[in-house]
Amino acid sequence: MDITTIKQARERIKPYIKRTPLEYSLTLSKYLGTNVWVKLELFQKTGSFKVRGAVNKLLSLSAEERKRGVVAISGGNHAQAVAYASSVLDVDAVVLMPESTPLNYVQATKGYGATVDLQPTIGAAFAKIKDYETKGRIFIHPFDDPLVMAGQGTLGLEIMEDLPEMTDLILSIGGGGFGGGVSTAVKAMKPSVRIRGVETIGADAMTLALKAGHPIELPAITSIAKTLGAPSVSARTLALAQKNLEEVIVVSDDEAVKELIFILERLKVLTEPAASCTLAAALRLKGQFNDNNNLVLVFCGGNLSLTDLCKYVSKSQV
Fold it and tell me: How many angstroms separate the CA atoms of 161 and 6, rounded?
């Protein structure tokens, strides 16, 4: 994957996705003491960036491969993305999901026409993938696939075109495919941009991998930011993080929820904890920014149920 494959992905997926807005936020600029823009990717089809990679992967399959059907694994956003892309492109899809997946993700995935196979844990779901591959289905990996990563990287092209004067970028890290694709695009167009990743405690596979120098498997995903909950990163995404990221910041669930509420009340958009954590990380870095910085926060998804929102708000007021 490189800037060429990312540009090719953009042309391929253009009919199926939205070019989401990049907007200046006076509120966040005052809050952080610098110039802040938000990439509102939560307005993307299916509510997150994941559809970019899913569509690019499916469009890259041969007619024969599409007839065999696809299988994916996800705790949320990738599931909906693969289900949507498969529906639009007339491909049969099965999605493996852990039983802990919020009901709204399961219902949305089924609503797009995919068959959902619930498994006890995310690890058990990964273990069952082979069964479906043996039957001929094509596995659409949530992050460790160059075509998926190239699709995600198209978001980086949009940011650079809309704000070529960007100096800093903060984005969420799950399995690392999103960060890998976006950082590859941004660094190719402007190497001086400082890119930082964010994880939450209990979904910090990249931080552990960076410390160890190789992927580490988490024993369990304990963060409420389920869409960041990859059991481990891959050698490919780790290498891209080592190459392109300044650092990866780990914030708590409480910090992510606090900023989620702030974003909802002041910017009037509902993010997931996996997206609001970018603002929590920016607050940690507040002293490093000034009037000369142009900071972009990526709000990567907004698929949060009303039930979970009420639960988070109630807990925050205790």
Answer: 14
